[in-house]
Amino acid sequence: MADRLSAEVGYTGQVEPPGAHTKLGKAMGGFLNSEDEQLVALLRRSLARIAAAAAPDDGGTTGTAVGAALDGAEMVIRGELLRGNAEQLPALLPSFVFLVVLPVAKQGRALELSRRAKVLIDGALGD
């Protein structure tokens, strides 16, 4: 879903966007199994791509705010995985999209992409 949304928003995939790779994994290493660590990395990378695609090309955006939003989303993802609640992640993804897009786009655009993420998730899950 997240990769599809990033493509819809216009992510070209030429270069990984800033913040796509976690620094938290080393600090929190050993708590999650390798499969969960891969899921965390995939989700963070996909969310970073969505934020990068949603950012205007004027160079006036800050990677620090997006990085903080990505760190927050990653912490929630890790927490849900540690609690054994992986099934909750699809319901949280639209909120994560809103969170990471808001620093680089207007609130209306962040909400629009969040809603689109929900539609994609619902379609993938058959809801």
Give structural notes.
The protein is mainly alpha-helical and 127 residues long. The protein has one domain. Helices cover 67% and strands 0% of the residues. It contains 6 helices and no strands. The protein has helices spanning 2-9, 24-27, 34-54, 63-82, 89-101, 107-125. Helix 4 runs antiparallel to helix 5. The longest helix is centred in the middle third of the chain and has 21 residues, at 34-54. It is globular, with a radius of gyration of 14 Å.
**Percentage of β-strand residues:** under 5%
The level of helicity is: 55-70%
Gyration radius (Cα, Å) is 14 Å
Low-confidence stretches: none
Q: Structural class from helices and strands? A: mainly alpha
Mean pLDDT: 86
Q: In sequence order, what are the helices and strands, one letter per element?
A: HHHHHH
Shape: globular
Number of helices: 6
Distance between the termini: 14 Å
The largest sheet, given as strand count, sense and whether it forms a barrel, is: none
Number of domains: 1
DSSP, total strands: 0
Please write out the topology.
Elements: H1 2-9, H2 24-27, H3 34-54, H4 63-82, H5 89-101, H6 107-125
Structural features:
127 residues; mainly alpha
Task: Provide a brief overview of the structure.
This protein has helices spanning 2-9, 24-27, 34-54, 63-82, 89-101, 107-125. With 127 residues, it is mostly helical. α4 (63-82) runs antiparallel to α5.
